[in-house]
Structure formats: C-alpha cells, structure tokens
Amino acid sequence: MRCRLFLILLAVCSLASMAQENDTLPPNRYTTHGTLFGVGTSNLFDTYLSPVTYKGVHLSFLHETLRKTHWCEGRVSTQSIVDGFLCHTANQANTAKEWGGKVNYSAGWHYNWLIAQRLRLMLGGEIHAGLGIIYNTRNSNNPVQAKAEADLDLSFIAIYPFHIRKKPFTARYQLSAPMIGIMFSPQFGQSYYEMSQGNYDHNVCATHPFNAPSMRHFLTLDFPIAGFTFRAGYLCDIRQSHVNNIKSHVWNHSFMIGYVKHFGFTKRKESRHKSFIM
Amino acid sequence: MRHYVQHIICLLSVIIFTACISEEVPENTPAGNFEALWHIIDTRYCFHSYKTDNGCLDWHQVYDKYRPRISHDMTREQLFEVLCEMLAELRDGHVNLYTSADVGRYWKWHEDYPENFNENLLKYYLGTDYRIAAGIKYRILDDNIGYIRYESFASGMGDGNLDEVMHHLRLCNGLIVDVRNNAGGTLTYAERFTERFTNERRLVGYIAHKTGNGHDDFSSPEPEYINPSNGIRWQKRTVLLTNRSCYSATNTFVRNMKACPNVTVMGDRTGGGSGLPFSSELPNGWSVRFSACPMYDAGMNHIEFGIAPDILTSLSTDDVLRNKDTMIEAARDFLNK
Description:
The complex is a heterodimer of chains A (278) and B (337). With 278 residues, chain A is mainly beta. Helix content of chain A is 11%, strand content 63%. Chain A has one domain (2-12, 30-277): Lipocalin (Beta Barrel). In chain B, 33% of the residues lie in helices and 19% in strands. In chain B, helix 9 (187-194) runs parallel beside helix 10. The longest helix of chain B is centred in the first third of the chain and has 17 residues, at 2-18.
C-alpha cells in the first residue's frame, strides 16, 4: 500500500512536469504573507477518551507565506502554513467537557498552469506536521489523547483574480489531503502511565487514506480596502484516523478574517496584484 | 499516463470524501444506555477471562439477567439502580457509575470483612506531637521502633520528605509502615516509597493492556521494576501493616514491598484492585469507570482479589477496650525479637 501511494505521488509530479504551457510569469521573488484569525465549530470524537462526540467552538489562526521561485521558469511556488486552534467542547448531555488544541506546520511546492486567461491551477505536494492534545476533564487514567503526526500531502490550488470597479479581488480554493504518513497513537487500552514507564506498543502508526482519510479545504477571498488587502476565508479541516482500534476525528469549520501583505522587488501596482495570484 | 493518473485521483477522492470515521452511539433511552454500558464493559474491561475462569462472572449471562429489567418508561433512578446492580456483578471496586446525584459502587471487597483498624487507637501511638512530612505521619515509639502512618497515596510525597523521614528514624531498631485503610491514589508515590527499601533493581510485577475488543485481546505483559532510591534507604527490618481496605495503588505498593528484602507484611489480606481504571461514558452523560490494564505480581499471578499477608493478624476487641492496637503490638513484638 505504501508503495502504491508513493507511485501515485510520483505519477502526479511527473504529469505536472510534463505539462508545459506557455504562460510563464517573469521570474521574481514576490512573496505574499497572509495572517488570519477565525472562530468556528469543532466536533471531537476519540474512542480512547469517550464513545460519544463532543461539540463546541474554537478560536483559530493561520499564517501563510506564498512565494514564487525561479524553478521551472517560475512555474513552481512554495507555500508554508502555520495554523492552530483551541477548542472547548461538551458532550450532548453537557455533563463533561473536552479541551482540544493543535498546531500544524506545512511546507508545500506547487507547479502552476494558467487556464482560460485568469484561472490558475496549481498542483503539488506538502510536508505536514501537527502536534496537539485533547483533554477530557473528568476521565481517570485516560484523560488525554496526544496528537502527533507527520505526512506527505497532495495539494491542489485554484486561483481566480478578477476586478470589480477596477479594484482587484482574488478568489482562491485549496484542497490538501494526506497520502502517506505516520502518527502517534496509544494502543487500544494502553495507559499513558505505561508509556511513561517505557512500555511502547505500536505507538507510531503508518497512515494512508484508508486508515486516516483526512483533508483540508481552504476558500478565501482577497479584497482591497483603503489601499490595504484583506482576506476573508472559510477553513474546513477534517482530521480522522482509525489505528490501534481507536477511532478518532477532529472536524473544524472556521470562518476567518485577516490581512495580506505583498513583498517584491517592483512597485508597479499591476505586478503587486500579480504577486498574490502567482 | 494522464488517464491513469486521473483514475487514481478519482479513486482517492472517492475514498477521502466518503470515508467518515465515526461510530454509531445508542440512543439516549434506558435501553440505549443499558446497551452502551454493557458494550463498554464487554469490550474494554480487563478481567473478564480471569473472573470467568474463577466462576464468578459470565458477562453474557449478566446481559440476559438484566436486560429484561429495562423498560422505556423507567425513571433515571430506576435505570441507575439496575445498571449499578449489573456492574456489581464484576465484583470490582474500580468500577463506578457516576451521575450528578450519586455514585454507583461496589465496596464489598472491604465491607464483607473485619475492619482490622480503629482510628481512635492511633492517638495512643502517634500522640499529638508526631511529625508530618507531606502525607506521612511518623514518630519513634517508646521501644525505639519507628512508626509511619500513610493514609492515602493521593497525598503527595517527595524524595525530600522521605529523606527527612528516614533520617529522623535512622537510629530505630525497626520500622512499622501502617497503610491500613489506605484506599490508593497515585502509583508514582507507591513506587517512590518502595524505592527506599531496596538496594538493587528488583522485578516487582507485570502490567498489560487491552489491544482490542475481545476478552482475551491483551498485549504481552511488560515487567515492572523498582530501582533503588538515590536518597536514604532503610536497611533494617520493616513490618508493613495491611487490612482489607488496602486497595488500588496501596495494593500495588504491598506487591512492590513484598519483593523487597527485610519486609514482612502483617495484618489481613489486602482488598485488591489491580486494574488501572479508565473512564468512558453513556449517551445520557453518565460516566463509568472500569479496570482497563491488569497488573500482576512478580510470579505473573493476578492480585485483583488482594494479596495475602506473610503473617496473619487481626484486631482484637479486648485490645481495643484496653486502648491497644493488636496489629501494631504484634509488629513491635516481631521487630523486637
């Protein structure tokens, strides 16, 4: 299975390399920074802690850096994202609470094509790592579930710039999905006390779309106000796993708002606009 | 090639977009909560096979016995009563059902046996000027025997406390460690205390955990060792006083101490409780605690139903009337011989 997934990634990358189109942007070092803060709903489920689902709200943040490279005549861009959330949830009967939090970092490389004059499609891969925790406030020796994972993701981005009353807007959608990775998980009934004694039992598990079908949708709209560029977005982060006979999911839906900054070596307005459409 | 990749991407999309990892939870009805509780214990409780082999549990028979008592119009109190009765079939003090109004419990592990402890007698041994180091009360008795009273492993105890205690008692001829009525607490404190009674690394037992839903799905038992403390260690004879109310972490402490040299366990059998408890919950929000990780002694024997003392002693009613604690007196005699 691991071999197959590797071949899939390889095939996708090969296809991207083969597809050469004559829409290359001039090489430059434009960098776009976006910082967003959000609120939303969380849905936590982890059979190590409880067989029931916990629902609540969360606060989240996301910082993104998107940069064009000189590679492949400027067709390759790099993206790094740091994001995180802190949630407070309760069971349906409202008799118990769970706190959850996680920080993710991902670094990605995308190859892009310009389709139909404005629509730009980008396909690539990401390296993702995440570290988090879910804390159940009333459990005895299983109060906590630690979350640690690292994976290789397939990533797709569609960017559509447009103008309204001569003002530049950009709509963007990104889908990322882990293809292969590793994650930490206690064994079905293993206590953290045992692990503190050095007793490990398959606590690092291989993950793939069949045992950890996860994905992230990120939809944003960049819009100018008074010379500044703001960004509004919707982030749907679905993280799931079924390893060591423990089922787990963290479903987050965030509505985010923030600002965007562009850095480059030119001051021309048009180029500034191009910078964040890459 | 392009075709092939498109097919793969389509297949992955179908997997990712349709695979929702979740679980059906029974409805929040009396029947649903009963089924949820029975299933949690069926899949996660760790002593099914041990207790079935001992002839004291058949969880499927338990289902047949209690399921007919569940009806859709029963009150919360009636449901709580039936569920508690069902859990009592496990004969496990680590199994509890928690609601906002009450705690379902099984306490027969000590209620059905002689208490062998009288709190009022302690003042005749500790007096009023005893020392207190964190959770430890201690003093030197008239016959130069050190006496330590440790009431709960939930009370914290640091290495600094233990150094002070051992230093104060260093000139005593022997030591009595009284853990009667200590119903447990934190395992770390039990280990920390035991480390004062050995000069070498010792195998004290094993621990395992469940790896799946089956009654026999267990990991390989992992050995548990006690390492000697870097602080002051006790080198003389020690008597550990126990009774039926020694439970959970105290049961583990007694197991550990039995592996140490110069330690003699006196009193009554301990209450047991060798399963590290986990928690779960029902659709109505009630919390349930149950034994999840079995612990064994150094011979891979279960200690769920307690540990027998090396010397059986009990509290005499006549001695109580004379303000004497028979068990402490027996320990002093033993250490003074």
